TrEMBL record:
It catalyses: Hydrolysis of proteins in presence of ATP. Homohexamer. Organized in a ring with a central cavity. GO terms for biological process: protein catabolic process; proteolysis. Belongs to the peptidase S16 family. Its main location: cytoplasm. Residues 593-772 form the Lon proteolytic domain. ATP binds at residues 356-363. It holds the Pfam family AAA. The active site is at residues 680, 723. This is Lon protease. SUPFAM superfamilies: P-loop containing nucleoside triphosphate hydrolases, Ribosomal protein S5 domain 2-like.
């Protein structure tokens, strides 16, 4: 294509060139920087390589526009490369925008008459300079996002031709061909600059957005890569340690366990929170095992599981009768209690406390209640507990922290409504670590135990459905606020005849089965059982009795195993003495004849009642009082009260007015190794003094109990049942008791009362009339 154009040597685009790849009849044109960052500007060019010859430094027109004012570009061929496969690459230099005026056809090519396109430039110098500076400034900002050739930047900063500067900047932008054409077609300089500046500004914002997104993505990638890297390292470490655990899978399993459990909403939220903490910890971390144990404890506790209550009162009555002999009043009270539960459908407000001597069946009564109601039974022994944390748990900040005994037993029960026995609640201690009895104020209060707080769990746990039963030997060691929350049911000691029946119906068959003996191997007689009770196991309970029967059966089993000859299969008094050896408890030595100053008193002990002999002698002296027999302060005060009363009322009893001046008085209670105390011996002390001062013995076969006052009144006492049982065992037939205790005799079995004669007194004078 030959070009005829004026001023064709006026080349102004020396920093730009056009790449044209010619293959067959299709040509791809790209305008590019010398760094070969290319942007398409035209689509196709019609040329036949076989017919057309192209030479270096030749000019030709590239017809690119279908517009009346612009036809295309004037190009100068700078370099030609043969790429093979009939492909040529032309390096051409754009000279100017041209308009074709005339086309002349030759044999193989066309010759055109062109003229340069003159753009509208009506801007004044100040405005033109302003656009130039603004374009340079914006392009400089944009260049921070592009890899721009330094020479190009220098060229842009030095170029003052507004059209040429816009062309240079335009060629550097990464824009699509449509937008590019819109700039090329724009011949109005001011409009071109406005569009160009807007495009550059949008490109800057787009690049900023891309950069921000890239940084965020890169940060996430780096974070995730770091986590992946650390997890991979952790897997390798765990594999080396033999702890090849997939914490992700474990977390999902743990999370599903929590979501599918019956936890309360608060507990579930807490467990999930701890599980998420656990996920981020390595398995070898100490905190990992602490949190894992904590979650396991929460999941192992019952939160909603219950057992269905069985309130068949007849069944309960049969179970109590089958498991326990005697205790009629206690059984009656338990049946009343179960009846109330049946009708009210609510166990709140009912905290039972069985009080009695060791071995009377307090714990087994609780088990019978659980059996009758169809509930599970758990028990903790509180004896010797001094630390409050034993009950309410340790905080998780401590090494080896665990929940308290209450929560541990609830886990063992597996339901929220077990029968929970608090054994030996009177043995609770207290020291600088806290007072455990205070912790039970919350546990045994029906109004607040639905939100029991264990120090380890740190979440509320509902104990309101639990049936608490306490046991104690005495009540005076239980704090008053705690005692006030419980309903006391006193379990008296067993009478001698009751122990005989218990032995024959319960103990002997049970021990015989345990020892492997048969009925024909050993036969216990009543006198043998009584011998064991009186001389080897006189306590109120039956534990000692059971141990001694076990000893006898063990010795009989040994004889059978060795093939020794057995003289008698029966176990009577002589056989008991043979198998058990010397008597552990010798019966109280009774005087053959009554002696002045010797009087029988009745005392209460934790093991049951006891008959005590009070001895008083009068010696010449100057009024000294001597008390022996390891007496407690209360009993010493009773002796002082008795002497003061007799000094005031000496005429009433016919004794010497100045006995407290002229004589020394010695009061002794035998079995001096055993501590003795209490006010109930007051009546016995004053009667012993009257008998000694008058030198006149009391009537035979009498015993007494009662507190005295300075005015001589006989006041009521406790433990009357145990005292009467002790008197019956001792063979005493006459008992003097305070008149205000008369109503309590109704609780004494008729079988006991019919062998005894009771005398009810109001004061010492009435007592003396009976005894002297």
């Amino acid at each position: 294509m030959i070009i005829d154009m004026d001023e064709k040597e006026n080349l102004s685009y020396e920093s730009l060139f056009l790449l044209i790849d010619i293959s067959g009849r299709e040509i791809e044109q790209k305008i590019s920087l010398k760094s070969l960052n290319r942007i398409d500007i035209v689509d196709k060019f019609d040329i036949d390589l076989q017919k057309t010859k192209i030479y270096e430094n030749e000019y030709f027109v590239l017809k690119s526009f279908n517009r009346e004012d612009i036809s295309g570009l004037l190009l100068k061929v700078l370099k030609i490369e043969n790429l093979g496969e009939r492909v040529l690459r032309l390096y051409v230099l754009p000279v100017d925008y041209i308009k074709i005026k005339k086309v002349i056809d030759y044999h193989n090519y066309k010759k055109v008459k062109c003229e340069k396109v003159v753009f509208k430039d009506i801007l004044d110098e100040n405005k033109k300079r302003g656009y130039l500076n603004l374009l340079r400034k914006n392009f400089k900002e944009l260049s921070s996002f592009y890899k721009i050739d330094k020479d190009l930047i220098v060229k842009i900063n030095s170029e003052n031709d507004p059209f040429l500067l816009s062309e240079i900047v335009l060629s550097s932008l990464e824009i699509d061909s449509g937008l590019f054409y819109s700039f090329v077609f724009e011949t109005d300089l001011e409009k071109r600059y406005k569009k160009l500046l807007l495009t550059i500004k949008e490109e800057i914002e787009r690049k900023k957005l891309e950069e921000r997104i890239y940084e965020e993505v890169l940060e996430n990638i780096q974070e995730n890569s770091e986590k992946v890297f650390l997890k991979e390292q952790l897997k390798i470490i765990n594999r080396e340690l033999g702890q090849n655990v997939d914490t992700g899978d474990e977390f999902l399993k743990l999370k599903n366990r929590i979501l599918n459990s019956d936890l309360s909403n608060v507990a579930k939220e807490k467990a999930l929170e701890e599980a998420h903490r656990l996920k981020s910890l390595p398995t070898y971390s100490p905190e990992y095992s602490i949190i894992k144990n904590y979650i396991d404890w929460i999941l192992s506790l019952p939160w909603k599981r219950v057992t269905v209550d069985n309130f068949d009162i007849k069944l309960a009555k049969n179970i109590l009768s089958k498991n326990h002999y005697g205790l009629a009043q206690v059984k009656e009270r338990i049946l009343e209690y179960l009846s109330v539960l049946k009708l009210s459908k609510n166990s709140k407000g009912h905290i039972l406390c069985f009080v009695g001597a060791p071995g009377v069946g307090k714990t087994s009564l609780g088990q019978s209640i659980a059996q009758a109601m169809g509930r599970r039974f758990v028990r903790i022994s509180l004896g010797g507990i001094k630390d409050e944390s034993e009950i309410k748990g340790h905080r998780r900040t401590y090494v080896g922290a665990m929940p308290g005994r209450i929560i541990q037993m609830m886990k063992r029960a597996g339901v929220v409504n077990p029968v929970f026995m608090l054994d030996e609640i009177d043995k609770l201690g207290g020291d600088f670590k806290g007072d455990p009895s205070s912790a039970f104020l919350e546990i045994l209060d029906p109004q607040i135990n639905n939100s029991f707080s264990d120090n380890y769990l740190e979440i509320e746990y509902d104990l309101s459905k639990v049936l608490f039963i306490c046991t104690a030997n005495v009540t005076h060691t239980i704090p008053t606020p705690l005692l006030d929350r419980m309903e006391i049911i006193k379990i008296p000691g067993y009478l001698e005849f009751e122990k005989v029946e218990i032995s024959k119906k319960f103990l002997i068959p049970k021990i015989m089965k345990r020892s492997g003996l048969k009925k024909q191997d050993i036969i216990f007689q009543d006198d043998g059982i009584v011998k064991i009770i009186r001389n080897y196991a006189p306590e109120a309970g039956i534990r000692g009795l059971e141990k001694n029967i076990q000893t006898i059966m063990g010795k009989r089993a040994k004889e059978i195993a060795l093939g020794e000859k057995i003289k008698s299969k029966k176990i009577g008094k002589e056989e008991v003495l043979k198998y058990l050896g010397p008597e552990d408890y010798i019966e109280r030595i009774k005087e053959k004849e009554n002696i002045p100053g010797v009087v029988n008193g009745l005392a209460w002990t934790p093991h049951g009642g006891k008959v005590l002999t009070v001895e008083a002698i009068i010696l010449e002296g100057n009024g000294n009082l001597q008390l022996t027999g390891q007496l407690g302060d209360v009993m010493k005060e009773s002796a002082s009260t008795a002497i003061s009363y007799l000094r005031k009322n000496y005429r009433l009893f016919g004794i010497d007015k100045d006995f407290y001046k002229n004589f020394d008085i010695h009061i002794h209670i035998p079995e001096g190794a055993i501590p003795k105390d209490g006010p109930s011996a007051g009546i016995t002390l004053v009667v012993s003094l009257i008998s000694a001062l008058k030198e006149k013995p009391v009537k035979e076969n009498f015993a007494m109990t009662g507190e005295i006052s300075l005015t001589g009144n006989v006041l009521p006492v406790g433990g009357l049942f145990e005292k009467i049982v002790a008197a019956q065992i001792d063979g005493i037939k006459n008992i003097i008791v305070p008149k205000k205790n008369r109503s309590q005799l109704k609780k004494i079995p008729s079988k006991v009362r019919r062998d005894l004669k009771f005398y009810f007194v109001n004061n010492i004078y009435e007592t003396s009339k009976i005894l002297f």
